[in-house]
Amino acid sequence: MKMKSEILKLLRETDGYVSGQQISGQFGVSRTAVWKVIRQLQEEGYQVEAVRNKGYHIVDSPDVMTKEELSSLINTRWAGRNILYYDVTDSTNLRIKQAGDEGAPHGTLAVADRQTAGRGRRGRTWESPAGSSIYMSILLRPKIAPNKASMLTLVMALSVAEGIRQCISQPGCPELQIKWPNDVIINGKKVVGILTEMSSQIDYINHVTVGVGINVNMIDFPEEIAQTATSLRIECGHTVKRAPLIAAVMERLEKNYETFLETEDLSGLLDRYSALLVNRDRDVQIIGAKETYRAHAIGINNTGELIVRRENGDIEKINAGEVSVRGVYGYV
Ligand code: BTN
């Protein structure tokens, strides 16, 4: 298992050919054993060229998110180093909560190709068909006060937006934006949803699960969400491979999380987050438990609250957990 992902990594990181002898020397196995691993990779859809007297060269990879594929791509210290992969599971958030209760390390990542009970915010479900999207959840064990944990959702939103940007940098791919607090949108439609859940005591966080759903290559959406949801494929006009995208998000998250921990607030990330914030300087509807009102969104502060001006001129700070924000004429 480990050797397969290490060989994949070596093939990826080498421009030309890697000789069978080099691989067998490096891993202390026979050249026949190396050949067997290469055959397995080819059967899984990797295009690996084998040329006599030269060795092996990887030409293309399938769009899979297996443990080997992910660990050969993820270059981080902790984010996504320990991977749980499922062809099918109920919900990656549930898998990570369980792993967290059982003592799994900080940064453990669960990824599924399909979810049978994908969960969204406010008790909604999250459409999770096979083969076309990313469903992943990461386990965090921050040593911060529980009331600061909601900021992690914004840290993730920024990391996902930046990770996607890195993977779809071709000209013609439209701008990514963040709809406060944590939906990533393109052309006013949602491509990413984030669900953060915490297991804590009054003054102590046991662990936090940050779940991310990214609509990558989906082209059909159920009628209820067809007006507000989109995918990278629809907006960019080409398919996007999922594993490199997960790797890019993990790299961004590791950096952004560490910046967050330095001050335990968003001050080190605020400029980048605000630059992507779609609500800034827009009229919004604030939908709370007690009242719904119209206001003008000014921006966010260091703790991730949305600052709005009510129609009577009062300035208010809106906390992400308590309300939902819509555009005056629709979703954004
Ligand atoms: C939202 O309602 O916007 C949040 C959606 C979060 C969906 C993701 S998919 C991976 C993880 N597992 C879940 O069951 N939900 C999150």
In short:
By secondary structure, this protein is of the alpha+beta class.
Low-confidence stretches: none
Give the SSE order as H and E letters.
HHHEEHEHEEHEEEEHHHEEEEE
Rough outline? elongated
CA(first)-CA(last) distance: 45 Å
Count every helix, treating DSSP H or I runs of 4 or more residues as helices. Answer: 9
Polypeptide structure, described:
- It is a single chain.
- Helix content is 30%, strand content 28%.
- A hairpin with a 2-residue loop joins β8 (189-201) and β9 (204-215).
- The protein contains 9 helices and 14 strands.
- The protein has 332 residues and is α+β, with helices and mostly antiparallel strands.
- The strands form 3 sheets. The chain has a 7-stranded mixed β-sheet, with helices on both faces. The chain has a 5-stranded antiparallel β-sheet with strand order 13-12-11-10-14, with no helix packed on it. Strands 1-2 form a two-stranded antiparallel ribbon.
- The site of biotin (BTN) has 20 residues, from α5, β5, β8 and β9.
